Amino acid sequence: MCKAWEDMMQEVAEWTTKEVEVRAAKEAEQTVKETEERTILQNIRNVMDLFHVTADQAMAALKIPEGRLAELITRL
Q1: Alpha carbon separation from 56 to 38, 52, 68 (Å, rounded)
Q2: Model pTM?
Q3: Does residue 1 register a pLDDT over 80?
């Protein structure tokens, strides 16, 4: 009975470890995406302020894909 209990506890520990790793990876990925978004927005603002240009001009200078322009403008 003791061996069976130890095996079960080992399985639970392994499963828990995997779950924690998966969740941590997902959270890290989300954090990276959020940080990249904030950085892009801050870069656009910086170019606008420094060169006194519009958001469209700043995004063109930063070579931001056209597909993202509308979304980013609403977030500025």
Answers
A1: 17, 12, 11
A2: 0.72
A3: no
